[in-house]
Specification:
The complex is a heterodimer. Chain A is of the alpha/beta class. Chain A contains ten helices and nine strands. The longest helix of chain A has 20 residues. Chain B is of the alpha/beta class. Chain B contains 13 helices and 13 strands. Chain B has a seven-stranded mixed beta sheet, with helices on both faces. In chain B, strands 7-9-11-12 form a four-stranded mixed beta sheet. Chain B has a two-stranded antiparallel sheet with strand order 1-2. In chain B, strand 4 and strand 5 form a beta hairpin. Classes of the chains: A alpha/beta, B alpha/beta.
Protein backbone atom coordinates (compact mmCIF):
# COMPACT_ATOMS: atom_id res chain seq x y z
CA UNK A 1 0.00 0.00 0.00
CA UNK A 2 2.28 2.77 1.20
CA UNK A 3 5.29 3.14 3.47
CA UNK A 4 6.66 6.12 5.36
CA UNK A 5 10.29 6.65 6.23
CA UNK A 6 12.33 9.56 7.48
CA UNK A 7 15.66 10.38 5.87
CA UNK A 8 17.18 13.17 7.86
CA UNK A 9 14.71 16.04 7.63
CA UNK A 10 12.75 14.53 4.77
CA UNK A 11 9.72 12.28 5.15
CA UNK A 12 9.36 9.94 2.18
CA UNK A 13 5.92 8.47 1.51
CA UNK A 14 6.16 5.64 -1.03
CA UNK A 15 3.24 4.06 -2.87
CA UNK A 16 4.54 0.53 -2.99
CA UNK A 17 4.34 -2.27 -5.53
CA UNK A 18 4.14 -2.44 -9.29
CA UNK A 19 0.40 -1.88 -9.61
CA UNK A 20 -1.62 1.17 -10.56
CA UNK A 21 -1.81 2.50 -6.98
CA UNK A 22 -5.53 2.93 -7.46
CA UNK A 23 -7.01 5.08 -4.72
CA UNK A 24 -9.56 2.82 -3.07
CA UNK A 25 -10.48 2.85 0.60
CA UNK A 26 -7.48 0.76 1.76
CA UNK A 27 -4.84 2.90 0.03
CA UNK A 28 -6.61 6.12 0.97
CA UNK A 29 -6.65 5.04 4.62
CA UNK A 30 -3.01 4.04 4.41
CA UNK A 31 -1.98 7.40 2.95
CA UNK A 32 -4.03 9.29 5.54
CA UNK A 33 -2.40 7.33 8.30
CA UNK A 34 1.06 8.11 6.96
CA UNK A 35 0.23 11.82 6.65
CA UNK A 36 -1.14 11.79 10.21
CA UNK A 37 2.22 10.40 11.39
CA UNK A 38 4.07 13.14 9.52
CA UNK A 39 1.80 15.77 11.07
CA UNK A 40 2.29 14.34 14.56
CA UNK A 41 6.07 14.34 14.12
CA UNK A 42 5.99 17.96 12.94
CA UNK A 43 3.75 19.05 15.79
CA UNK A 44 5.91 17.25 18.34
CA UNK A 45 8.74 19.57 17.37
CA UNK A 46 7.11 22.92 16.68
CA UNK A 47 10.39 24.82 16.84
CA UNK A 48 12.01 21.88 15.13
CA UNK A 49 14.82 21.78 12.65
CA UNK A 50 12.66 22.05 9.54
CA UNK A 51 11.08 19.24 7.54
CA UNK A 52 9.65 18.41 4.14
CA UNK A 53 7.62 15.62 2.55
CA UNK A 54 8.27 13.72 -0.66
CA UNK A 55 5.63 11.44 -2.18
CA UNK A 56 6.96 8.89 -4.63
CA UNK A 57 5.71 5.69 -6.24
CA UNK A 58 7.20 2.39 -7.33
CA UNK A 59 6.50 0.91 -10.74
CA UNK A 60 5.03 2.38 -13.92
CA UNK A 61 2.32 4.40 -12.25
CA UNK A 62 2.31 7.29 -9.85
CA UNK A 63 -1.42 6.70 -9.43
CA UNK A 64 -4.05 5.84 -12.01
CA UNK A 65 -6.85 7.48 -10.07
CA UNK A 66 -9.74 6.32 -7.94
CA UNK A 67 -10.45 2.63 -7.65
CA UNK A 68 -13.80 2.79 -9.43
CA UNK A 69 -13.89 -0.90 -10.24
CA UNK A 70 -14.68 -2.31 -13.67
CA UNK A 71 -15.97 -0.02 -16.38
CA UNK A 72 -19.53 1.03 -15.59
CA UNK A 73 -18.99 0.64 -11.85
CA UNK A 74 -21.65 2.34 -9.78
CA UNK A 75 -22.02 6.06 -9.43
CA UNK A 76 -22.53 5.59 -5.73
CA UNK A 77 -19.10 4.03 -5.42
CA UNK A 78 -17.55 6.82 -7.45
CA UNK A 79 -19.18 9.45 -5.25
CA UNK A 80 -18.02 7.63 -2.15
CA UNK A 81 -14.42 7.54 -3.34
CA UNK A 82 -14.52 11.17 -4.46
CA UNK A 83 -15.60 12.04 -0.92
CA UNK A 84 -12.96 9.75 0.59
CA UNK A 85 -10.14 11.38 -1.40
CA UNK A 86 -11.04 14.91 -0.30
CA UNK A 87 -9.47 14.56 3.18
CA UNK A 88 -6.15 13.55 1.59
CA UNK A 89 -6.21 16.80 -0.37
CA UNK A 90 -6.96 18.63 2.88
CA UNK A 91 -4.19 16.83 4.77
CA UNK A 92 -1.65 17.75 2.11
CA UNK A 93 -2.74 21.37 1.68
CA UNK A 94 -2.65 21.87 5.44
CA UNK A 95 0.61 20.01 6.05
CA UNK A 96 2.98 22.23 8.03
CA UNK A 97 5.98 21.70 5.76
CA UNK A 98 6.90 21.95 2.08
CA UNK A 99 5.67 19.03 -0.03
CA UNK A 100 7.20 17.58 -3.21
CA UNK A 101 5.58 15.05 -5.54
CA UNK A 102 8.03 12.85 -7.46
CA UNK A 103 5.80 11.88 -10.38
CA UNK A 104 7.58 8.67 -11.28
CA UNK A 105 4.85 7.34 -13.61
CA UNK A 106 1.38 7.92 -15.01
CA UNK A 107 -0.77 10.20 -12.94
CA UNK A 108 -4.38 10.35 -13.98
CA UNK A 109 -7.51 11.82 -12.48
CA UNK A 110 -7.19 11.54 -8.71
CA UNK A 111 -3.54 10.60 -9.27
CA UNK A 112 -2.96 13.93 -10.99
CA UNK A 113 -4.87 15.62 -8.20
CA UNK A 114 -2.67 13.92 -5.64
CA UNK A 115 0.37 15.40 -7.39
CA UNK A 116 -1.26 18.83 -7.68
CA UNK A 117 -1.94 18.93 -3.94
CA UNK A 118 1.83 19.08 -3.35
CA UNK A 119 3.76 22.38 -3.46
CA UNK A 120 6.25 21.16 -6.08
CA UNK A 121 6.13 18.52 -8.82
CA UNK A 122 9.04 16.81 -10.51
CA UNK A 123 8.32 14.34 -13.28
CA UNK A 124 10.22 11.81 -15.33
CA UNK A 125 10.73 12.65 -18.98
CA UNK A 126 10.91 9.20 -20.44
CA UNK A 127 7.50 7.84 -19.64
CA UNK A 128 4.17 8.70 -18.14
CA UNK A 129 1.40 11.13 -18.81
CA UNK A 130 -0.73 13.43 -16.76
CA UNK A 131 -4.40 13.10 -17.55
CA UNK A 132 -7.65 14.32 -16.07
CA UNK A 133 -10.43 12.11 -17.38
CA UNK A 134 -13.49 12.12 -15.15
CA UNK A 135 -16.23 14.69 -14.70
CA UNK A 136 -15.06 17.15 -12.11
CA UNK A 137 -16.67 17.25 -8.70
CA UNK A 138 -16.74 20.81 -7.32
CA UNK A 139 -13.71 20.57 -5.06
CA UNK A 140 -11.71 19.03 -7.91
CA UNK A 141 -12.56 21.93 -10.22
CA UNK A 142 -11.49 24.42 -7.55
CA UNK A 143 -8.20 22.59 -6.99
CA UNK A 144 -7.46 22.55 -10.70
CA UNK A 145 -8.27 26.25 -11.03
CA UNK A 146 -6.01 27.09 -8.10
CA UNK A 147 -3.00 25.16 -9.33
CA UNK A 148 -3.26 25.31 -13.13
CA UNK A 149 -3.34 29.01 -13.85
CA UNK A 150 -2.31 29.36 -17.46
CA UNK A 151 -5.65 29.71 -19.24
CA UNK A 152 -4.89 27.38 -22.13
CA UNK A 153 -3.39 24.81 -19.79
CA UNK A 154 -6.53 24.57 -17.68
CA UNK A 155 -8.71 24.26 -20.76
CA UNK A 156 -6.51 21.56 -22.24
CA UNK A 157 -6.35 19.49 -19.08
CA UNK A 158 -9.92 19.87 -17.82
CA UNK A 159 -12.00 20.44 -20.93
CA UNK A 160 -10.02 18.50 -23.51
CA UNK A 161 -8.67 15.65 -21.45
CA UNK A 162 -5.27 16.25 -22.95
CA UNK A 163 -2.57 13.78 -22.04
CA UNK A 164 0.58 15.62 -21.08
CA UNK A 165 4.08 14.29 -21.09
CA UNK A 166 6.55 15.86 -18.67
CA UNK A 167 8.10 18.52 -20.97
CA UNK A 168 4.65 19.80 -22.02
CA UNK A 169 3.50 19.75 -18.43
CA UNK A 170 6.49 21.90 -17.51
CA UNK A 171 5.66 24.38 -20.31
CA UNK A 172 2.18 24.64 -18.87
CA UNK A 173 3.47 25.28 -15.37
CA UNK A 174 1.97 22.06 -14.03
CA UNK A 175 5.32 20.40 -13.40
CA UNK A 176 8.33 22.28 -12.03
CA UNK A 177 11.19 20.12 -13.27
CA UNK A 178 11.72 17.26 -15.65
CA UNK A 179 14.19 14.49 -14.81
CA UNK A 180 15.50 11.65 -16.95
CA UNK A 181 13.88 8.58 -15.40
CA UNK A 182 12.17 7.39 -12.25
CA UNK A 183 15.27 7.03 -10.03
CA UNK A 184 16.51 10.50 -11.03
CA UNK A 185 13.09 11.99 -10.36
CA UNK A 186 12.96 10.46 -6.90
CA UNK A 187 16.52 11.56 -6.11
CA UNK A 188 15.96 15.15 -7.29
CA UNK A 189 12.72 15.32 -5.35
CA UNK A 190 14.47 14.30 -2.15
CA UNK A 191 17.26 16.79 -2.84
CA UNK A 192 14.73 19.59 -3.35
CA UNK A 193 12.94 18.54 -0.18
CA UNK A 194 16.22 18.69 1.75
CA UNK A 195 16.92 22.19 0.46
CA UNK A 196 13.44 23.31 1.44
CA UNK A 197 13.69 21.68 4.87
CA UNK A 198 17.05 23.38 5.41
CA UNK A 199 15.31 26.77 5.24
CA UNK A 200 13.87 25.85 8.64
CA UNK A 201 10.60 27.57 8.08
CA UNK A 202 8.06 27.60 10.86
CA UNK A 203 5.69 24.83 9.76
CA UNK A 204 2.51 26.42 11.08
CA UNK A 205 3.36 29.69 9.33
CA UNK A 206 4.22 27.82 6.13
CA UNK A 207 0.85 26.05 6.15
CA UNK A 208 -0.96 29.30 6.99
CA UNK A 209 0.68 31.09 4.05
CA UNK A 210 -0.22 28.18 1.78
CA UNK A 211 -3.85 28.48 2.84
CA UNK A 212 -3.75 32.26 2.29
CA UNK A 213 -2.33 31.65 -1.18
CA UNK A 214 -4.89 29.06 -2.29
CA UNK A 215 -7.87 30.04 -0.14
CA UNK A 216 -10.58 28.78 -2.46
CA UNK A 217 -9.04 25.35 -2.99
CA UNK A 218 -8.38 25.00 0.72
CA UNK A 219 -11.92 25.95 1.65
CA UNK A 220 -13.21 23.54 -1.00
CA UNK A 221 -11.53 20.60 0.71
CA UNK A 222 -12.68 21.65 4.16
CA UNK A 223 -9.65 23.40 5.64
CA UNK A 224 -10.71 25.92 8.28
CA UNK A 225 -9.54 29.46 7.63
CA UNK A 226 -7.87 31.28 10.51
CA UNK A 227 -9.56 34.40 11.74
CA UNK A 228 -7.89 37.80 11.75
CA UNK A 229 -7.84 37.70 15.56
CA UNK A 230 -5.88 34.46 15.55
CA UNK A 231 -3.43 35.95 13.10
CA UNK A 232 -3.10 39.12 15.19
CA UNK A 233 -2.32 37.04 18.26
CA UNK A 234 0.26 35.15 16.28
CA UNK A 235 1.82 38.42 15.08
CA UNK A 236 2.14 39.63 18.66
CA UNK A 237 3.72 36.40 19.76
CA UNK A 238 6.35 36.58 17.04
CA UNK A 239 7.77 39.99 17.87
CA UNK B 1 14.91 85.24 4.37
CA UNK B 2 14.34 82.41 1.97
CA UNK B 3 17.70 83.05 0.41
CA UNK B 4 19.32 82.83 3.83
CA UNK B 5 17.59 79.50 4.45
CA UNK B 6 18.73 78.18 1.10
CA UNK B 7 22.24 79.34 1.88
CA UNK B 8 22.33 77.61 5.23
CA UNK B 9 21.17 74.37 3.67
CA UNK B 10 23.54 74.63 0.76
CA UNK B 11 25.75 71.84 2.04
CA UNK B 12 23.22 69.14 1.20
CA UNK B 13 22.07 67.75 -2.13
CA UNK B 14 19.32 69.49 -4.03
CA UNK B 15 16.70 68.70 -6.55
CA UNK B 16 14.77 71.01 -8.80
CA UNK B 17 11.06 71.06 -8.02
CA UNK B 18 9.73 73.88 -10.14
CA UNK B 19 6.50 72.59 -11.53
CA UNK B 20 5.59 75.68 -13.45
CA UNK B 21 7.94 74.15 -15.96
CA UNK B 22 10.09 77.22 -16.16
CA UNK B 23 13.56 76.49 -17.42
CA UNK B 24 16.22 77.73 -15.07
CA UNK B 25 13.89 78.21 -12.11
CA UNK B 26 16.00 77.99 -9.00
CA UNK B 27 13.32 76.70 -6.63
CA UNK B 28 14.83 73.66 -5.05
CA UNK B 29 14.10 71.29 -2.22
CA UNK B 30 17.00 70.14 -0.06
CA UNK B 31 17.46 66.41 0.22
CA UNK B 32 17.37 66.13 3.97
CA UNK B 33 15.38 63.85 6.20
CA UNK B 34 14.61 66.68 8.55
CA UNK B 35 11.53 68.78 8.79
CA UNK B 36 11.32 71.16 5.91
CA UNK B 37 8.81 73.63 4.70
CA UNK B 38 7.54 73.86 1.21
CA UNK B 39 9.65 75.89 -1.12
CA UNK B 40 8.02 78.85 -2.83
CA UNK B 41 8.60 78.93 -6.52
CA UNK B 42 8.59 82.45 -7.90
CA UNK B 43 7.00 81.26 -11.11
CA UNK B 44 4.07 79.69 -9.33
CA UNK B 45 3.63 82.86 -7.33
CA UNK B 46 3.55 84.91 -10.50
CA UNK B 47 1.06 82.49 -12.02
CA UNK B 48 -1.20 83.17 -9.07
CA UNK B 49 -0.90 79.90 -7.23
CA UNK B 50 0.88 81.47 -4.32
CA UNK B 51 1.03 78.28 -2.33
CA UNK B 52 3.60 75.70 -1.45
CA UNK B 53 4.59 73.67 -4.45
CA UNK B 54 5.88 70.86 -2.39
CA UNK B 55 4.25 69.91 0.84
CA UNK B 56 6.02 67.92 3.42
CA UNK B 57 4.10 65.75 5.77
CA UNK B 58 5.56 65.33 9.20
CA UNK B 59 4.84 62.53 11.53
CA UNK B 60 1.98 63.23 13.85
CA UNK B 61 2.88 60.62 16.39
CA UNK B 62 2.38 61.74 19.98
CA UNK B 63 5.19 59.40 20.93
CA UNK B 64 7.99 61.67 22.14
CA UNK B 65 10.57 59.08 21.14
CA UNK B 66 9.76 59.59 17.50
CA UNK B 67 11.58 62.62 16.23
CA UNK B 68 9.49 64.94 14.11
CA UNK B 69 10.90 64.11 10.74
CA UNK B 70 9.32 64.44 7.40
CA UNK B 71 7.85 61.08 6.58
CA UNK B 72 6.78 61.77 3.05
CA UNK B 73 6.43 64.64 0.66
CA UNK B 74 3.86 65.41 -2.01
CA UNK B 75 4.70 67.36 -5.11
CA UNK B 76 3.25 67.93 -8.54
CA UNK B 77 5.23 67.29 -11.68
CA UNK B 78 3.04 68.29 -14.59
CA UNK B 79 -0.11 66.22 -14.14
CA UNK B 80 1.55 63.73 -11.84
CA UNK B 81 1.20 63.73 -8.07
CA UNK B 82 4.44 62.36 -6.72
CA UNK B 83 4.50 61.07 -3.16
CA UNK B 84 7.99 60.29 -1.89
CA UNK B 85 8.85 58.36 1.25
CA UNK B 86 11.69 60.47 2.56
CA UNK B 87 14.99 59.61 4.19
CA UNK B 88 17.58 56.92 3.87
CA UNK B 89 15.88 54.43 6.21
CA UNK B 90 13.75 51.36 5.61
CA UNK B 91 10.44 53.27 5.37
CA UNK B 92 8.94 50.79 7.79
CA UNK B 93 5.16 50.95 7.74
CA UNK B 94 4.51 52.29 11.22
CA UNK B 95 1.18 53.87 12.18
CA UNK B 96 2.86 57.27 11.68
CA UNK B 97 4.09 56.57 8.18
CA UNK B 98 0.82 54.96 7.17
CA UNK B 99 -1.05 57.97 8.53
CA UNK B 100 1.27 60.33 6.63
CA UNK B 101 0.70 58.36 3.45
CA UNK B 102 -3.06 58.44 3.91
CA UNK B 103 -2.90 62.20 4.45
CA UNK B 104 -0.82 62.53 1.31
CA UNK B 105 -3.39 60.52 -0.64
CA UNK B 106 -6.16 62.72 0.76
CA UNK B 107 -4.28 65.78 -0.52
CA UNK B 108 -3.90 64.16 -3.93
CA UNK B 109 -7.53 63.14 -4.04
CA UNK B 110 -8.62 66.72 -3.37
CA UNK B 111 -6.78 67.98 -6.41
CA UNK B 112 -9.22 69.41 -8.92
CA UNK B 113 -7.83 68.17 -12.22
CA UNK B 114 -7.24 64.75 -13.75
CA UNK B 115 -3.88 63.35 -12.89
CA UNK B 116 -1.97 60.25 -11.92
CA UNK B 117 -0.16 59.10 -8.81
CA UNK B 118 3.42 57.97 -8.39
CA UNK B 119 4.62 56.58 -5.06
CA UNK B 120 8.42 56.48 -4.72
CA UNK B 121 11.03 56.34 -1.99
CA UNK B 122 14.47 57.73 -1.25
CA UNK B 123 17.38 55.55 -0.32
CA UNK B 124 18.05 51.84 -0.58
CA UNK B 125 14.54 50.71 0.34
CA UNK B 126 11.10 51.22 -1.13
CA UNK B 127 9.71 49.79 2.10
CA UNK B 128 10.88 46.93 4.25
CA UNK B 129 7.45 46.09 5.68
CA UNK B 130 5.64 46.62 8.94
CA UNK B 131 7.40 48.37 11.80
CA UNK B 132 7.91 45.45 14.13
CA UNK B 133 10.30 47.45 16.30
CA UNK B 134 7.45 49.85 17.03
CA UNK B 135 5.08 46.95 17.65
CA UNK B 136 7.43 45.56 20.29
CA UNK B 137 7.08 48.81 22.27
CA UNK B 138 3.29 48.81 22.52
CA UNK B 139 0.75 46.38 23.96
CA UNK B 140 -0.61 43.80 21.48
CA UNK B 141 -4.07 45.31 21.20
CA UNK B 142 -2.49 48.32 19.48
CA UNK B 143 -0.89 46.24 16.72
CA UNK B 144 -4.18 46.33 14.89
CA UNK B 145 -3.78 50.08 14.56
CA UNK B 146 -0.86 49.38 12.26
CA UNK B 147 -2.26 46.37 10.43
CA UNK B 148 -5.73 47.90 10.17
CA UNK B 149 -4.33 51.22 9.00
CA UNK B 150 -2.40 49.47 6.24
CA UNK B 151 -5.57 47.72 5.11
CA UNK B 152 -7.23 51.16 4.92
CA UNK B 153 -4.24 52.51 2.96
CA UNK B 154 -4.65 49.73 0.41
CA UNK B 155 -8.35 50.60 0.22
CA UNK B 156 -7.40 54.25 -0.38
CA UNK B 157 -5.14 53.21 -3.26
CA UNK B 158 -7.73 50.95 -4.83
CA UNK B 159 -10.34 53.71 -4.59
CA UNK B 160 -8.05 56.49 -5.85
CA UNK B 161 -9.71 58.32 -8.74
CA UNK B 162 -6.67 58.32 -11.00
CA UNK B 163 -4.15 55.81 -12.39
CA UNK B 164 -1.44 54.78 -9.91
CA UNK B 165 2.18 53.87 -10.50
CA UNK B 166 4.61 52.49 -7.92
CA UNK B 167 8.23 53.50 -8.47
CA UNK B 168 10.03 50.65 -6.72
CA UNK B 169 13.28 52.48 -6.21
CA UNK B 170 14.73 49.91 -3.79
CA UNK B 171 13.91 46.78 -1.83
CA UNK B 172 10.24 46.09 -1.29
CA UNK B 173 9.61 43.42 1.31
CA UNK B 174 6.51 41.92 2.94
CA UNK B 175 3.93 44.70 3.46
CA UNK B 176 6.29 46.94 1.46
CA UNK B 177 6.00 44.55 -1.48
CA UNK B 178 2.22 44.44 -1.04
CA UNK B 179 2.19 48.26 -1.08
CA UNK B 180 4.01 48.32 -4.41
CA UNK B 181 1.72 45.69 -5.91
CA UNK B 182 -1.38 47.62 -4.80
CA UNK B 183 -0.75 50.06 -7.65
CA UNK B 184 -2.01 49.76 -11.23
CA UNK B 185 1.49 49.61 -12.62
CA UNK B 186 4.97 49.17 -11.24
CA UNK B 187 8.27 50.53 -12.50
CA UNK B 188 11.21 48.91 -10.77
CA UNK B 189 14.86 49.79 -10.47
CA UNK B 190 16.81 47.43 -12.73
CA UNK B 191 20.15 47.44 -10.99
CA UNK B 192 19.18 47.06 -7.38
CA UNK B 193 16.34 46.01 -5.16
CA UNK B 194 14.12 42.95 -4.83
CA UNK B 195 10.47 42.17 -4.52
CA UNK B 196 10.51 39.85 -1.54
CA UNK B 197 7.60 38.33 0.33
CA UNK B 198 9.70 37.74 3.40
CA UNK B 199 6.95 36.51 5.68
CA UNK B 200 7.82 32.82 5.31
CA UNK B 201 11.44 33.54 6.24
CA UNK B 202 10.62 35.70 9.27
CA UNK B 203 7.69 33.56 10.40
CA UNK B 204 4.74 35.89 9.82
CA UNK B 205 1.30 34.88 8.63
CA UNK B 206 -0.49 36.75 5.84
CA UNK B 207 -3.55 38.91 6.23
CA UNK B 208 -6.16 37.41 3.94
CA UNK B 209 -6.14 40.33 1.52
CA UNK B 210 -2.38 39.89 0.97
CA UNK B 211 -3.14 36.50 -0.55
CA UNK B 212 -5.75 38.04 -2.85
CA UNK B 213 -3.40 40.87 -3.83
CA UNK B 214 -0.67 38.40 -4.73
CA UNK B 215 -3.13 36.31 -6.70
CA UNK B 216 -4.21 39.39 -8.63
CA UNK B 217 -0.70 40.55 -9.43
CA UNK B 218 1.08 37.19 -9.73
CA UNK B 219 -1.51 35.00 -11.40
CA UNK B 220 0.91 32.21 -12.27
CA UNK B 221 0.62 29.62 -9.48
CA UNK B 222 4.24 28.48 -9.67
CA UNK B 223 5.67 32.03 -9.66
CA UNK B 224 3.42 32.94 -6.75
CA UNK B 225 4.43 29.80 -4.85
CA UNK B 226 8.09 30.65 -5.39
CA UNK B 227 7.54 34.13 -3.96
CA UNK B 228 5.38 33.35 -0.96
CA UNK B 229 6.27 29.75 -0.11
CA UNK B 230 9.84 29.91 -1.34
CA UNK B 231 10.82 33.33 -0.07
CA UNK B 232 12.39 34.09 -3.45
CA UNK B 233 13.89 37.53 -3.88
CA UNK B 234 12.75 38.66 -7.26
CA UNK B 235 14.89 41.00 -9.34
CA UNK B 236 13.43 43.57 -11.72
CA UNK B 237 14.39 41.44 -14.74
CA UNK B 238 12.52 38.39 -13.43
CA UNK B 239 9.58 40.51 -12.37
CA UNK B 240 9.31 42.00 -15.87
CA UNK B 241 9.61 38.57 -17.47
CA UNK B 242 6.78 37.26 -15.28
CA UNK B 243 4.65 40.29 -15.98
CA UNK B 244 4.53 41.32 -12.34
CA UNK B 245 6.08 44.70 -13.01
CA UNK B 246 5.64 46.72 -16.15
CA UNK B 247 9.14 48.02 -16.70
CA UNK B 248 12.63 48.00 -15.26
CA UNK B 249 14.41 51.37 -15.28
CA UNK B 250 18.18 51.71 -15.42
CA UNK B 251 20.09 54.12 -13.26
CA UNK B 252 19.56 55.41 -9.79
CA UNK B 253 16.57 56.39 -7.68
CA UNK B 254 15.95 59.62 -9.59
CA UNK B 255 16.00 57.83 -12.93
CA UNK B 256 13.41 55.32 -11.71
CA UNK B 257 11.25 58.15 -10.41
CA UNK B 258 11.59 59.99 -13.73
CA UNK B 259 10.57 56.87 -15.65
CA UNK B 260 7.58 56.31 -13.37
CA UNK B 261 6.56 59.96 -13.64
CA UNK B 262 6.83 59.79 -17.44
CA UNK B 263 4.62 56.68 -17.48
CA UNK B 264 2.15 58.35 -15.14
CA UNK B 265 2.13 61.52 -17.21
CA UNK B 266 1.18 59.43 -20.25
CA UNK B 267 -1.72 57.92 -18.33
CA UNK B 268 -2.85 61.27 -16.95
CA UNK B 269 -2.75 62.78 -20.43
CA UNK B 270 -5.54 60.43 -21.45
CA UNK B 271 -7.82 62.63 -19.39
CA UNK B 272 -9.87 59.75 -18.02
CA UNK B 273 -12.70 60.43 -15.62
CA UNK B 274 -11.14 59.59 -12.26
CA UNK B 275 -14.32 58.18 -10.73
CA UNK B 276 -14.62 55.81 -13.66
CA UNK B 277 -10.99 54.72 -13.25
CA UNK B 278 -11.64 53.93 -9.59
CA UNK B 279 -14.84 52.00 -10.32
CA UNK B 280 -13.21 49.95 -13.08
CA UNK B 281 -10.26 49.14 -10.86
CA UNK B 282 -12.50 47.94 -8.03
CA UNK B 283 -14.44 45.84 -10.51
CA UNK B 284 -11.22 44.32 -11.88
CA UNK B 285 -9.86 43.59 -8.39
CA UNK B 286 -13.04 42.45 -6.65
CA UNK B 287 -11.40 39.92 -4.36
CA UNK B 288 -8.93 42.43 -2.90
CA UNK B 289 -11.42 45.29 -2.84
CA UNK B 290 -13.99 43.08 -1.14
CA UNK B 291 -11.57 42.37 1.68
CA UNK B 292 -10.35 45.92 2.29
CA UNK B 293 -13.38 48.06 1.58
CA UNK B 294 -15.25 47.39 4.77
CA UNK B 295 -12.58 48.90 6.90
CA UNK B 296 -14.27 51.75 8.75
CA UNK B 297 -11.78 54.30 7.52
CA UNK B 298 -12.10 53.16 3.92
CA UNK B 299 -15.55 54.70 3.53
CA UNK B 300 -14.48 58.28 3.46
CA UNK B 301 -16.68 61.13 2.28
CA UNK B 302 -15.78 62.79 -1.00
CA UNK B 303 -13.71 65.89 -0.36
Amino acid sequence: MCTLEQRGRVFVLTLTGDGEHRLGHPLIASIRSALASVLAAAQAQPQGPGAALVTVAEGRFFSNGLDVGRAGGSRARLRELVDAFRPIAADLLALPMPTVAAVTGHASAAGLLLALCHDYRLMRADRGVLYMGLPLPPYVARLLRAKITQAHALRDVALRGRKLRAPEAREMGIVDAVCAGAPETAAEAVKLAEQLAAREWDGAVYASIRVSTFPDACRAVGIAVESDEEKSRHFASRL
Amino acid sequence: MMHLRLHLLSQVGWRNVCNAGTVGCSARQPNTPYETEGVLCIHRMMAGYGCLNRNSITSRSPNPRMDKRTMCTVEKRGRVHLITLTGAGEHRLSPSLISALRSALATVRASPSAGALVLAAEGKYFSNGFDQAWARTVPPHLHDSMRGAFRALVADLLALPMPTVAAVTGHAAAAGCALALAHDSVVMRASRGFLYMSEVDVGLKFADYFGELLRQKVPDAAARRDMVLGGNKMTAAEAVRLGIVDAAADGGVEDVVAAAVAAAEGLAARGWDGEVVAEIRKAMWPAVWGKVKDHPAAARPRL
